[in-house]
Write a structure and sequence with these properties.
Layout lengths: L20 H20 L5 H28 L5 H40 L6 H6 L28 H25 L2 H32 L7 H33 L9 H26 L1
Length: 293
Amino acid sequence: MAQAHESHDTNVYYVPHGSRWPVIASVALFLTMLGFAQWLNEVSWGKPVFFLGLAFLAAILFKWFGDVIRESLRGYYNKQVDTSFRMGMVWFIFSEVMFFAAFFGALFYARQFALPWLQGEGHKVATHAVLWSDFTGGWPSNGPGAIGGTYQTIPAWGLPLLNTLILLTSGVTVTIAHHALKSGHRKQLLLFLGLTVLLGASFLYFQAEEYMHAYKELNLTLGSGIYGSTFFMLTGFHGAHVTLGTIMLAIIWFRCAAGHFNRENHFAFEAVAWYWHFVDVVWLGLFLFVYVL
């Protein structure tokens, strides 16, 4: 590798070799999004192109992350590089916070402003009089046009509560695994990290059950007006993050089993643990504002 050296000097910063993976990954992302867009528009080749792009992207990420893992195991990274990784992960999680803040903001705006204005409250009386003078509905609502028809909401104290307990438990197990890693207890590390992966998979299973129940029996869909769109955008994107987090935890489990980490050098584990705790916190807000209130 160009410019690779096994130096632990904190004044020497490792500069990686020229990589082809970013360009190829961009092509895979383009294929994935193109296929998805065409699939939504019911174009015949959209679905196969989407899955082809997804498989292509997964293969590229496998190779790309493999390069990074090999560089780490060969000792190319020092404390300066470790600090860069930590700062990068912090900014990544911050961007995710802003991502979910936008969807929570849409939910808040619809509930606290848009619907009251359409009912003639506040200083927006003209909105009610001109647009929907006969609208009196409150939250949850699919809007004055009753888009998507009549639907039922999902009770908070069923599967949503169970999934909340599952995620909270997973936050505990990943923390125990982290302490086991720092203490050098390998069996305890693998046990509790494996439990975290199983809890993440259980959460996804129950969320899939909830979605099928909503679509088939409650007529609650993504097309059920503002309530349906905010509900599925928030829970759906959170589910996507849980899926990604579960995959990352599983990969870290295999790396732990292979002995890639020690008490001092295990940032990859810490980064995934940070991400998982972020997913837990987002779900708590989601459970409260989407299901309970």
